[in-house]
Each structure stands twice: as C-alpha cells, then as structure tokens.
Request: fold
Amino acid sequence: MYDELLFADETDVVEPKIVDKIKVLIVDDEEEVHIVTKLVLNDFVFEGKMIELLSVYSASEAKEVLLKHEDIALILLDVVMERADAGLQLVKYIREVMGNNLVRIVLRTGQPGEAPEARVIVEYDINDYKEKTELTAQKLLTTLISALRSHRDLLTIAMNKKGLEKIIESSPEIFRMQSMQNFATGVLMQLIAMLRLNKNSLYLKVSSFAATCKKDGEIKVLAATGDFHIQNYEKLSQEIHDKLDYVLAAKQSIFLEDYFILYWQSVDEHVYLIYMEGDQRLSDLDRRLLDVFCLNVSSAFENLKLHLEMYDTQREVFFRLAEVAETRSKETGNHVRRVAEYARLLAMKYGLSEKDVNTLHLAAPMHDIGKLGIPDEILNKPGKLTPKEFEIIKLHANIGYDMLKGSHLHMLQAAAIIAKEHHERYDGTGYSSGLQGNEIHIFARITAVADVFDALSCNRVYKKAWPLEDVLSYFQEAKGGQFDPELVELLFSNLDEFLQVQEKFADDFHHTSV
Reply:
C-alpha cells in the first residue's frame, strides 16, 4: 500500500510514494507537550507501520521540516507560538502555498480564546480542534487513529486518481509505437512509471498454441529492463521458465510477494505476458490499475497489429507496382527491395524521424515508376543512347511525378517527389528542375544514393556489375557533385550494413563482390 506523499516539483500537486513508517509532526513551543505526546505515541503501530515522531517548536521550523519531509501524514499543531496566530498561518501555508491537501492537521491550543473553535473550523482547512486540557492519553490515541484513517482513505483516492491519470497519459504514447519492439519497450516504461517501480521486468510474446503446448511454442523476449536487459528467453533461469509455464497453463495473471506476471490473450489468440520483479507487494489498488492498464495495452496492441498489417500490405503493393516498371526495363529482380532497404538505412543514419523513415521505405521503390511511359525500344536499348533518346529517358522523372502527384495519400505524395527529384544532382546540374543542394528533398537525395549504389553493384541490361572498389571510388569522386556529401560519408561508414542488405536480397545472378 502506498502511504506517503511526494510533492511534484513542477506542479506542487501531491502524489503518493512508498513508505515504511508513518510520520507525525509535533509543532508546539512547550517542551512538556512534546514529552507527553511522545510518551503516549512512541510505540504506537498503525496498520503494521511504526509511527515516526518529528518535533519542532515554531511555525517557521515547521515549514523547513515540511519541505524536507514531504511525506508527513499528520500534524499536531499549536496555535500560539512565536505569534498569536502562528499555527493558523502555518495551516494557510500548507494548504495554499504548498498545495498539500492530504496531510491531516489537528489543531491543539491551550488558549482557546485566541482561536475560537467555531471561527477556526470554518475559516481554516483543519481536520480537528482540541483544547490541550481535554487531550488525555486515550483521547490522543483516538484522535491519532481517526486522523490516520482519514489520511489513508484520502491517499487511496489520490492513488486511484493518479494511477488512472498515468494510464490515460500512457495510452497515446503506446498507441504511437510503430514496431513491436518499440511497443514492448513503451509498455514497460509506462508500467514502471505508473507503479513507480524501479524493477527488473521483461515483456514476452507467445504464439497462441504455446499457451497450451508450451514445449512446442516459441517464446520471444521483445523488450527487457534491469537484469534481463540483454537476455533472450533461453538464457532466463529455469525458475522463471517454470513460473511462465505455470501462468500459461493457468491462463491468468499471478501476483506474489516479490514478482507478478500479467497474462492476457488477444482476439487472434496471441498470448502476451509481462513479468516484473520487485520487493514491494502490490496492493489491491495496484492490481485494479494493472487490470485497466492491460485492457489499454491489449487495445493498443490490436491497433498496432492492424497498422503493421496495413503497412505490410502497402509496401507489397508499392513493390509490385515498382517491379512492373523495373520488369519493363529488364532491371534486376530485387532492385526495388534493395533500394528500399538502402534508403531506410540511410534515413535512419541521417537521423530522420521514425515516421519519415517508414514513409521513405515505402516510397523509394517507386522512384522509376515513370519508366512505364518510356518506349521499350529506348528503355531496353543495349547500346549507348543517342542524345535524343537520352532526353526521352529523362522524361520518366516528370512522368512518374504526374502519375502520383494527384494522390491524397502521404506515401504516394512522397513517392511523387522522389520520382521527380531523384535524378537531381547536388551541384545543380541534374534533371528535371536543376535543383541544388538542400533544395532537393532529402527523400530524393537519399534515394539517389541508394539507387546508384545498387545500379553500379548489380548487372544491368546495358552493363556488368562493378567491383566494390570501383563503386566506392565512383561515390568518392561524385561526393558533393552528384551526391549529398553527408550521405556518401554515411554510406562509407556503414558499408557493412549495406552489404548485408545486398546479400540478403541478392539476385540469382551476379552482383558486385567485396
């Protein structure tokens, strides 16, 4: 159970945090009052927690202690101290300046005439009013218990509200995730923030049959934190394997003293688990919040899954359309797929946003879609083109742009720009508009590097593949002329990754060798 308060620096709004003791602040200028109060309350235990008594002798001292100890549950407050109304002014400071509405304040006065009960109760936000003469040991205990119960109940309400706010805040973040790995990481981050835990945790995905056929089902760790950060499922201890097997068999979440495992199943029967270790037992409130959190995560997952399926469908359609154009010009079979991957790599290394990286990954394969409008006898001519034929070939940039520019789809708008500008040169001598430097859209600059790197590295109808050394020499010479020099440097510094893509999407016939 969360039983303390934490002041949020940026908002001055209180929110709970975990405690081992309940702090009670005694504010009184009479030493005897402190001695008697401590004698009565020193060994008192409330709901399994010891009482920690803090003593100050003035309102000014109390302010310092309240700022240092933000988790005080109860204040036993004198009225008359350094000033006749010092206690009352401290109440206003606590409620109005500090914004602390959870701490319980019991006003104790030996001079009721200075602060009449009827006026004080109405004008000041206090929780009880006692004359010191009526506070016997038993009545002091009764007052303490009543105040702490009130604090506990208000704290539970505050925790409930804060937990729900965390869930609401986390939902947009989770829904914005664009990959399963990012989704899983986002879920862990939001869950830890919601519970205010700093634990070891991992997020697992199990195929639907693994829930019942655990020996045959693949369990994959998508994201992890703490001690599990670099581990895959096989490297987890047998003890954790046994725990997960139990949950998969029971098909329900479990909550134990030092860990919990959340279980839920999506509509397409994929099973998901969150395992989290810690040294704090979860309260009933925590569990209810986790139930709500899981519902949100499940909805977010379904939306992400639909998004990824739509993305894969769009990508396949774009590849197929692009391959139609490439087939007409008898280009290599996997050219458009390699260009897409090269472009994605360069975009990531260049620092584009995840959204732009995904857009370019889809749009780059459409760079030569305008070739559909070029006659076969020119497009597939094995020898050198005449100047007139080359002018006709150059038309494919504007043809592709005209084909795509009318679409309202963001992906096709990006593809239109790439089709029009991917033959522009960084020095301004390219076509079709003679753009220079950063006037050329970054999507087109990236696609130009990706396209030419693949064109030189693979067999074409009009040439053989170049050796890698010659390809790199060409790019070195063309840096700052044909190509954006920063992109060329990124190609050089990440060459191994580009060669891995080349190998993965190799054609059946020759491409460049290292």
In short: The first strand starts at residue 4 and ends at 7. The longest helix spans residues 284-328. DSSP finds 18 helices and 13 strands in the chain.
